[in-house]
Amino acid sequence: MKKSEPQNLSKSSPANSGLSYPILAVSLAAFIFVFLAANSALALGLKIAVFVVISLAYTLLFRFFYAKPHARQANLPEERIVEKTDTETYFDEDIENKLLALEEASRFFGASLKASDMFRLVTSRINEMIPFASCAFFLADGNQTNLKVIFANGENAGILTNLEIPSSKGLAGKVFIGGSCEIDKQLLLDKVSFPAKALTGLEAAIAAPLYRGADIFGVLQLFGSEKIVLGESSLRLLEAIAERFSPLLLSSLAFEKNLSSALTDSLTNLPNERAFYLVLENHIAESQRYRDNRPLTVLTIDIKHFAELNQKYGHATGDNILYFAAEIIKNQLRRMDFLARSMSDEFLTVLPTASKGVTQEIIERLNNIFDRSPYEISPEEKIIVELNYGTATFWQDGETAHELLKIAHLRKQQNKSSDNAKIIRFPNKNL
Predict the structure, then answer these.
(1) Three-state secondary-structure class, residue 379
(2) Which residues does residue 151 pair with via DSSP β-bridges, in sequence order?
(3) Angle between helix 115-129 and helix 233-263 axes, rounded to 10 deg
């Protein structure tokens, strides 16, 4: 919403229209009378009396022509003098203060909170202004063909989260295409777009577009229940909220993206070495507290003969092999395990609660799956990807991240040296 410019009353107000002519006439008449009285044969005292009378008369006439219309103008409604924004003319002081708090939150938190945390913070404030049963943030995909619920709060939040609909469907789709706030008093649009369980207990909804400049990047939708009624009066307020919510959410999404980029390997989409150290330090702290009951192992992995593969098939194929290996390793680890990519073809793994025996089981499982899953260079050629391993167990091999990683690297190099096979294995024709 853009504020309109204040009106210039001295030029455009009806109170001033034609005002200069009477004032000019009165001023001219007063000047003439003073001139005549000054040049007349009257006594000095009488001249002074005439001058005083003319001055009083001029003052009274000026007040009649100028001050009275402006006094009437001062009593006009304030919005007649200055065209205020919708927010300024529509909301009471309490709502204004809460909207101002959203603007201030952008300066304090916008660039330092994850989007999920920002959503929870802001929606708690929204609920104070527009009580809702459930709230959802729809984000448009890159092609703007679908809207996905990234965050939800309130009733059915777990069901609504990750719900995806075409950008032309539902109330959110109508708002996304139309670009203005809308209300669906009976959820008629959403009932044909959402699974029924997602709308259980919900009766109505209002939604507002979220803008990035002139483009819409998402939709904020509030759902009401039988106890919480959402009506037309909420639309203007939701529009004002969305206007302030958009920069907050955009800042948080950008912060989260930058944080993810700083901790993620772009080729494999795995966490990088920096993230590995952060996670390992946390697990070491836990293992130090429960040394005898919480084993911890670091597993380093790289691909055998990777330099030769790169040289023979090219770096593009080498990158594909890295991605292929990353996916298989990740899928064979336990849910609690943490896999990261280090330099070149090396992977680093944190195995919480894993003793040497458990670690060996994981290694055997990885070898078996790679033996059964050859990588296809071309329809005519496949190779078996083989791995080198090095392990280090907390307390037994070291008590710091640096010590554990140093021992794991050393053991991996020792395993390479003991491996006399210098030829890349190719699967037989029966594979």
Answers:
(1) coil
(2) 137
(3) 170
DSSP states of 384-418: ---EEEEEEEBTTTBSSHHHHHHHHHHHHHHHHHH
Q: Residue 181: which residues within 8 A CB-CB, separation 6 or more?
A: 175, 206, 207, 208, 209, 235, 236, 238, 239, 242
> In CATH, which of 3.30.70.240, 1.20.1290.10, 3.30.450.40, 3.30.43.10 is domain 90-260?
3.30.450.40
> Which whole-number Å values give the CA distances from 142 to 174, 178, 270, 351, 410, in the listed order?
18, 19, 22, 36, 45
**Separation of alpha carbons 369 and 367, rounded Å:** 6
Q: Which CATH superfamily is domain 273-418 in?
A: Reverse transcriptase/Diguanylate cyclase domain (3.30.70.270)
Determine the Cα–Cα distance for residues 346 and 341; give it in Å rounded to an integer. Answer: 6
| Tokens (6 digits) for 393 | 């167990």
Q: What is the DSSP string of 13-53?
A: -GGGTTTHHHHHHHHHHHHHHHHHHHTSS--HHHHHHHHHH
Dihedral (CA of 192, 193, 196, 202) sign = negative
Q: What's the CA gap between 319 and 49, in Å, rounded? A: 106
Write out the chain's pLDDT in tens, 431 residues.
433 343 343 334 444 444 556 666 666 776 676 667 667 766 666 767 766 676 777 676 666 655 555 444 444 333 332 334 444 445 788 888 888 887 776 666 655 677 888 888 889 889 999 999 999 999 999 889 999 999 999 999 999 999 999 999 999 999 999 999 999 999 999 999 999 999 999 999 999 999 999 999 999 999 999 888 888 888 889 999 999 889 888 888 887 777 667 788 989 999 999 999 999 999 999 898 887 788 999 999 999 999 999 999 999 999 999 999 999 999 999 999 999 999 889 999 999 999 989 999 999 999 999 999 999 999 999 999 999 999 999 989 999 999 999 999 999 999 888 765 444 444 544 44
* Phi, psi for 384 (deg, rounded to 5): -90, 120
Task: Name the phi and psi angles at 182, rounded to 5.
Answer: -140, 160
